[in-house]
Amino acid sequence: GMCPYGLEVCPGLPQYQYSPPTTIALKGPSNLLTLASRVRYAYDYFTARGLDAYQTAGILGNLEYESGGNLNPAQWQFGCTVAGCGRGIAQWTVDASRWQNLVILAGKMHMSPLNYQVQVAFVWQELQSDYYSSTYLPLKASTTIQKAVSIIELFYDVPASPSQSYGQRLADAQNILTEMATTQRAKAIIQCG
Questions:
Q1: Residue 90 and residue 60: Cα distance in Å, rounded?
Q2: What does each C-alpha distance from 54 to 80, 102, 187 come to in angstroms?
């Protein structure tokens, strides 16, 4: 039978299958429907947990690249038409344990696994658990945006051809860093006169 959010457990198969994304995936605060608001939400989320601007931009540049440039939590893997494609801001493989763990977290949060806030929280959960030694500790020790982008790409996203996408991931991260710095300066001017 059907479960919430179009989730269906297929008889005899150990994976989750999803019907095509619908607007339910984007429900939530209406201020997270733009790329700028999604970047701001995740930037604030990760920096509030102790990551610096470079480290946070490194995460977000990679996630922006993975999700086709828009941080869309309902993004399907480009060109993929079979079960087990990548989904969401980190393109988690649907029939693998990482996606199943995301579904569990979404259930605990009483939200869709295709919700942006759930996926941001899940990135943090993974960095604090399965990816703590391999990714979080080196990321936390990184002091440049280049190193932060490289760590997330190689040890968290793990693309098939990292050398082909590093430049765009870095450009996305640098754009995010510039945007956040500009916003912070504007806030400081408003607050401090």
A1: 10
A2: 32, 26, 19
The Cα 149–Cα 83 span in angstroms is: 29
Tokens 């079979």 correspond to 82
Q: From residue 92, how far is each of 37, 133, 183 by CA, in Å?
A: 22, 20, 30
pTM for this predicted structure: 0.80
d(CA 175, CA 173): 5
Q: pLDDT tens, 90-136? A: 999 987 899 999 999 999 998 999 999 999 999 999 999 999 999 99
Q: Is 8 helix (H, G, I), strand (E, B) or coil?
A: strand
Residue 19 neighbours by CB distance under 10 Å = 10
Cβ neighbours for 145, distance < 8 A, ≥ 6 positions apart: 54, 57, 58, 61, 170, 173, 174, 177
